[in-house]
Automatic annotation (TrEMBL):
Pfam families named among the record's database cross-references: MOSC, MOSC_N
Source species of the chain: Pseudonocardia dioxanivorans (strain ATCC 55486 / DSM 44775 / JCM 13855 / CB1190)
Highest taxon of the lineage: Bacteria
Positions of the MOSC domain: 130-273
Protein name: MOSC domain containing protein
Molecular function, one GO term: catalytic activity
TM ranges: none
Lineage: Bacteria, Bacillati, Actinomycetota, Actinomycetes, Pseudonocardiales
Length: 273
């Protein structure tokens, strides 16, 4: 095993509501569904039945101004307008509908065949976030055994080498794990990890299964962070990857499935096998 196979977990996140801002944690339990309480809740468009996601910025980019956090057995949504309520509380659907400009409901169980709309990020960059560009419809959770609202597989991670190359804030990519890689590690090293297993701490084993295709989300405003077209333009220029089943797409990071669950902590060593 080389030094290049040894890394460290420096940051962990969970996102209790899909496409809302999440919360940073120092310890997390992982099982086959991924990080505990991650992407367990979503907003559903009542008219279309589609899962609301900031991948479609004309309709849903303002979701990235809301924050979701775990409180006891529930999830609290905090609105940029100031209110904070449990996601399942009476009146939340009406408040979100009024602020988002579409009739929505909060869902805690993923419907069978749940889908999202995803415009090509190049179209959004060229036409702007308000443009009515063509959007593909994609089924989510295809690489997960659990009925959560993940885009593909239960865990999403990205390396410091890739982030350093792009030069934008890691939160734009909404990873569960940021891994500090050794000095000299090339950017987009995650492309070479696919098919390998990653052991984290004493217990957890992940299998790295797919490059993470990037939509418009990293370029959008995230809370107080402004827009950053560079977050995807850098990938369009330097890391277009053939993603099995999805085509050749700009990618950063990778998805993983959980081979063996357990508890991980910031500071844990992560070792590729």
């Amino acid at each position: 095993m080389t030094d290049g196979d040894r890394m460290q977990v420096t940051t962990m996140w969970r996102y209790p509501v899909k496409s809302m801002l999440g919360e940073q944690v120092t310890e997390a339990r992982l099982d086959e569904a991924g990080v505990s309480r991650d992407r367990r809740v979503a907003v559903i468009d009542q008219d279309t039945g589609l899962v609301a996601t900031a991948k479609h910025p004309r309709l849903w980019r303002h979701l990235l101004k809301y924050t979701a956090s775990v409180r006891g057995d529930g999830v609290v949504i905090t609105s940029p307008s100031g209110w904070a309520l449990d996601a399942t509380a009476a009146g939340v659907d009406e408040k979100l509908s009024a602020e988002l400009g579409r009739v929505v409901r909060v869902a805690t169980e993923r419907p069978d065949g749940a889908t999202v709309e995803r415009p090509d990020p190049e179209d959004v960059l060229a036409e702007g976030v308000e443009a009515a560009v063509h959007a593909e419809t994609l089924e989510i959770g295809q690489g997960s055994p659990a009925a959560t609202f993940v885009d593909y597989a239960p865990v999403h991670l990205i390396s410091s080498a890739t982030l350093d190359e792009i030069g934008v804030e890691h939160v734009r990519y909404r990873p569960n794990l940021v891994l500090q890689t050794p000095p000299g590690t090339p950017p987009f090293v995650e492309n070479s990890w696919l098919g390998r297993e990653l052991r984290i701490g004493d217990d957890v084993v992940l299998r790295l299964v797919l490059p993470t295709p990037r939509c418009s989300v990293p370029t959008l405003e995230h809370g107080d962070l402004g827009r950053s077209p560079q977050a995807v333009r850098a990938l369009l220029a330097a890391n277009r990857v053939d993603v099995p089943g999805f085509g050749t797409l700009p990618c950063a990071g990778c998805y993983a499935e959980v081979v063996r669950g357990g508890t991980i902590r910031v500071g844990d060593e992560a070792t590729l096998g």
